[in-house]
């Protein structure tokens, strides 16, 4: 369906040896997914059942101002709850009643588990069932875990969306479901491209409002817009939906291949596909080319953080001319990442999981031009003279599809330009 300027490599990384790391790891809390999810689902509320530390984390991450009315909060677990001296279930239900009385606009309420609530084995699933019976049909209450124990921060979104799938109504209609939270403007761009190709029976998970029609069944095919949705992928397949495998829509090539897979699935003619995509493809190429002048020939090293690492390595090596030395990812889900691995030329070390001390040793020995890592590693590596890119910014910034391709490349070129400018200033 599509033509690629750069042919696929004769041998990709799908079957390359994987270095499996199991040791101390550096992760960011899964609760942070609430920061982009609460903006996406406009009549939902996320109630974290956790500690004051959880509340401070969310306030800091979101930058909530004193006059704002956020759609998330924390039910604080006190010492008496943790010690079992009070019935935490009763207290939680009382807090929910107060919240719903004060905020009648809430249509979906997520009870979000944290490290403290998991440690004391608080049964949020049972609480969600009881509260749903009490408040249905006006409010639907769901639960998921955003705990930072043994997880990466993007798993918060995956757990949230997976919790929604069993409650979706059933449909036998032939339809496409787009899965993954995107900024509204980016989602609108994707829907517009699909509509121009004649694919108009499309739903989105998560929807912007609880009443938006989202259903699933045996004639549903779904396309992921994020690579970290392994649990949601499995939940949709259990409901009978079928995944359309494709590279993730990062950059011109990834977006074109993603759209081409859907065009083939829905029988879109080649001439119509080209008519829809030729102009935005050209714009994306021009935008990427400007940043690629800085990136071409440079080396990049990915620490495992967001699960975006493999599609981003594909984008940087194939569209920006970089060389990937190591591509670490928290989890390697080949049913999702296989198409990107096929396009990533053999050469970089693919690593799954993390032993942070060993990976730091490999990074220091490699001395890459650019290191993509979490916040906790960036400053120490910068102090050692390595140029870094915060992985979390790649999740908070609109980077999908054609119109954002240049912005995506710019996120990687700016640290290198900044470093060059600082060296020039020091030399003067």
TrEMBL record:
HAMAP family: ChlN_BchN
Subunit structure: Protochlorophyllide reductase is composed of three subunits; BchL, BchN and BchB. Forms a heterotetramer of two BchB and two BchN subunits.
Family label: Belongs to the BchN/ChlN family.
Binding site for [4Fe-4S] cluster: 29, 54, 115
Protein name listed in UniProt: Light-independent protochlorophyllide reductase subunit N
Keywords: 4Fe-4S, ATP-binding, Bacteriochlorophyll biosynthesis, Chlorophyll biosynthesis, Coiled coil, Iron, Iron-sulfur, Metal-binding, Nucleotide-binding, Oxidoreductase, Photosynthesis
Nucleotide-binding among keywords: yes
Species the sequence originates in: Roseovarius tolerans
Pathway: Porphyrin-containing compound metabolism; bacteriochlorophyll biosynthesis (light-independent)
Cofactor annotation comment: Binds 1 [4Fe-4S] cluster per heterodimer. The cluster is bound at the heterodimer interface by residues from both subunits.
Function: Component of the dark-operative protochlorophyllide reductase (DPOR) that uses Mg-ATP and reduced ferredoxin to reduce ring D of protochlorophyllide (Pchlide) to form chlorophyllide a (Chlide). This reaction is light-independent. The NB-protein (BchN-BchB) is the catalytic component of the complex.
One biological process term in Gene Ontology: light-independent bacteriochlorophyll biosynthetic process
EC number from the UniProt entry: 1.3.7.7
Catalytic function, reaction form: chlorophyllide a + oxidized 2[4Fe-4S]-[ferredoxin] + 2 ADP + 2 phosphate = protochlorophyllide a + reduced 2[4Fe-4S]-[ferredoxin] + 2 ATP + 2 H2O
Needed co-factor(s): [4Fe-4S] cluster
Matching SUPFAM superfamilies: Helical backbone' metal receptor (SSF53807)
Domain (Nitrogenase/oxidoreductase component) ranges: 29-384
Coiled-coil segments on the chain, per record: 75-109
Origin superkingdom: Bacteria
MF annotations from Gene Ontology: 4 iron, 4 sulfur cluster binding; ATP binding; metal ion binding; oxidoreductase activity, acting on iron-sulfur proteins as donors; oxidoreductase activity, acting on the CH-CH group of donors, iron-sulfur protein as acceptor
């Amino acid at each position: 369906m599509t033509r690629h300027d750069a042919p696929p490599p004769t041998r990709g990384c799908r079957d390359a040896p994987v270095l499996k790391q199991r040791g101390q790891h550096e992760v960011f809390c899964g609760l942070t997914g609430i920061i982009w999810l609460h903006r996406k689902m406009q009549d939902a509320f996320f109630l974290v059942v956790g500690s004051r530390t959880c509340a401070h984390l969310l306030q800091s991450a979101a930058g909530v101002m004193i006059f704002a009315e956020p759609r998330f909060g924390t039910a604080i677990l006190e010492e008496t709850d943790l010690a079992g001296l009070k019935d935490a279930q009763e207290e939680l239900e009382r807090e929910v009643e107060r919240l719903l009385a004060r905020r009648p606009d809430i249509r979906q309420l997520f009870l979000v588990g944290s490290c403290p609530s998991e440690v004391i084995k608080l049964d949020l699933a049972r609480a969600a069932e009881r509260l749903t019976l009490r408040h249905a049909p006006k409010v639907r209450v769901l639960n998921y875990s955003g705990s930072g124990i043994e997880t990466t921060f993007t798993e918060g979104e995956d757990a949230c969306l997976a919790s929604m799938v069993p409650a979706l109504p059933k449909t036998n209609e032939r339809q496409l479901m787009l899965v993954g939270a995107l900024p509204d403007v980016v989602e609108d761009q994707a829907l517009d491209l699909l509509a121009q190709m004649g694919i108009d029976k499309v739903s989105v998970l998560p929807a912007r409002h609880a009443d938006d029609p989202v259903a699933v069944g045996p004639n549903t095919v779904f396309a992921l817009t994020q690579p970290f949705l392994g649990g949601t992928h499995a939940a949709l397949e259990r409901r009978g939906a079928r995944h359309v495998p494709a590279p993730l829509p990062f950059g011109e090539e990834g977006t074109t291949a993603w759209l081409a897979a859907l065009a083939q699935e829905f029988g879109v003619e080649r001439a119509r596909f080209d008519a829809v995509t030729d102009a935005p493809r050209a714009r994306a190429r021009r935008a990427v080319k400007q940043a690629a002048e800085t990136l071409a020939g440079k080396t990049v090293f990915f620490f495992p953080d967001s699960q975006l690492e493999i599609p981003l390595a594909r984008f940087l090596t194939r569209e920006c001319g970089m060389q990937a030395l190591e591509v670490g990812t928290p989890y390697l889900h080949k049913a999702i990442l296989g198409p990107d691995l096929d396009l990533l030329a053999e050469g970089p070390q693919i690593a799954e999981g993390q032993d942070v001390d060993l990976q730091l040793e490999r990074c220091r020995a490699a001395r890459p031009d650019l290191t993509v890592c979490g916040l906790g590693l960036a400053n120490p590596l910068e102090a050692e003279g390595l140029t870094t890119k915060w992985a979390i910014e790649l999740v908070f910034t609109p980077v999908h599809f054609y119109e954002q391709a240049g912005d995506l490349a710019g996120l990687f070129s700016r640290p290198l330009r900044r470093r060059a400018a600082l060296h020039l200033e020091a030399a003067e």
